Amino acid sequence: MAPKYDLFINNEWVAPETGEWISVENPATKETVGQAARGGEADLDRAVAAAKAAFPAWSRKTATERADYVHALKDLVKRDKEKLAEIITSEMGKPLKEARVEVDFAIGLLRFAAENTLRLQGEIIPGSTPDEKILIDRVPLGVIGAITAWNFPLALCARKIGPAIAAGNTIVVKPHELTPLASLHLAKLVEEAKIPKGVVNIVTGDGPEVGVPLVAHPDVKLITMTGSTPAGKKIMAAAAETLKEVRLELGGKAPFLVMEDADLEKAAEAAVQSRFMNTGQVCTCNERTYIHEAVYDEFVQKVRQKIADLKVGLPTDPETDMGPKVSEDELKKVHEMVEKAVRQGAKLETGGKRLTGGVYDKGYFYAPTLLTNVSQDMDIVHNEVFGPVMSLIKVKDFDQALAWANDCRYGLSAYLFTKDLGRILRMTRELEFGEVYVNRPGGEAPQGFHHGYKESGLGGEDGQHGLEAYVQTKTIYLNV
Ligand SMILES: NC(=O)C1=CN([C@@H]2O[C@H](COP(=O)(O)OP(=O)(O)OC[C@H]3O[C@@H](n4cnc5c(N)ncnc54)[C@H](O)[C@@H]3O)[C@@H](O)[C@H]2O)C=CC1
Ligand SMILES: O=C(O)[C@@H](O)[C@@H]1OC[C@H](O)[C@H]1O
């Protein structure tokens, strides 16, 4: 039977004040796989009050004590890896093998937070008199508000909960309304790990009813959000009312540069993987592939074959490489973008349509799509597709590739395939992206730093820099 979840507030499961629940749909079958409470503002207020009440005791625990709790949570996630992967797949549609990778990533994020909270060091600097010392301490902020997207239902939650609580804060999480189930299972593990009440609270519901009051709440000190650029801008503007810090992980439009000296086989493999992983629904996906004209034809041949080899099907089938889009709306958005690109002169090599027949009729399956003859002025080169559509653009040299890569309002990830160290060094200076993959496919590490420039966001997450986002400095002029 599909599970029905209440809200997780103060380590208790409480019914929403709205008296309503959201049905969560499997995008591969349209079956209901669970129900999550439709929270409202009063629920959110209760959750923030619980988090605020929990803060003094939690922040007074030693870093080691907090780390032990986060380790315990991580161990339970590890224990439930298969169960969590199944939940992710059922609510989001990514192939089970990718869902397992997501669980491993969540484990890595929790592990990093637990292992590194003792490294949140302060500073001692000379005072203004011989007897004075100035201490710059690092202290937690208080209640954190976290808002997540649907493409990584578990990892995005872990990415925010781990460092926030390890650093001594308490947290209220609003998962995406399409995919709340993995985070609710995580809430059960928070309970089992005996993390004290009120430290982690999960309020499900949609953006206007839970997200908006979370951002507006005066007792919430920092908002960390993953999602679209338009929503991120609204959140930033709303947070200004209470002068809250915001950390925003937003859209991307990653360029993938393939130069004439690249290992073409590896580049083609990585380009396809980085485009079609999670059905193209990752902010770091290869959204536009720039290929040097000397190797363009050979590269097209290689990616055409690799795309033809992709098996689209039920995400629970071990043979499946690519599952459905997450929703009907998302599928339509992608299809309209492809149609527009073709109207603007792109050549549709393969795909470009919804898949039908057999299992496809039940879900939101879109054919892996290849567009050639794409030019820099087309809309598809500038707007985030977030779907299984590969756009190939021919460039005459590295200068043109760099210029076109930077001709973009986003600045999260980029890819470069070349053996030329001079080009690699030049790219480090000139490419306007916060995360660059050189001669490898995408996929960030928990110890790295996931940070977008321009309209891709603000602040960044992961690693030591990401952990430090959850503390503020306190300057103490110490005189005895
Ligand atoms: N950065 C990324 O990795 C992601 C980017 N996207 C992009 O966003 C597009 C739309 O996806 P959506 O799910 O509609 O994203 P969205 O940005 O609307 O939703 C993300 C989260 O923000 C919440 N939210 C939305 N508006 C809010 C507001 N004003 N105040 C507080 N919370 C708010 C939502 O309830 C959800 O939990 C996708 O097609 C894709 O292009 C989607 C998912 C992840
Ligand atoms: O939201 C996104 O798409 C990214 O932040 C994504 O989250 C987990 C993946 O590893 C990231 O690329």
UniProtKB/TrEMBL annotation:
Gene3D superfamilies under this entry? Answer: Aldehyde Dehydrogenase, Chain A, domain 1 (3.40.605.10), Aldehyde Dehydrogenase, Chain A, domain 2 (3.40.309.10)
Q: Which organism is it from?
A: Gluconobacter japonicus
Q: Does the keyword Hydrolase apply?
A: no
The record's InterPro entries line, in alphabetical order, gives: Ald_DH/histidinol_DH (IPR016161), Ald_DH_C (IPR016163), Ald_DH_CS_CYS (IPR016160), Ald_DH_CS_GLU (IPR029510), Ald_DH_N (IPR016162), Aldehyde_DH_dom (IPR015590), Aldehyde_DH_Superfamily (IPR050740)
Name the keywords, alphabetized.
Oxidoreductase
What protein name applies here? Aldehyde dehydrogenase
| Residue ranges occupied by any Aldehyde dehydrogenase domain in the UniProt entry | 13-476
| Family note | Belongs to the aldehyde dehydrogenase family.
Q: Which gene encodes it?
A: aldA
Task: Give the positions the UniProt entry annotates as the active site.
Answer: 249
Q: Which Pfam families match?
A: Aldedh
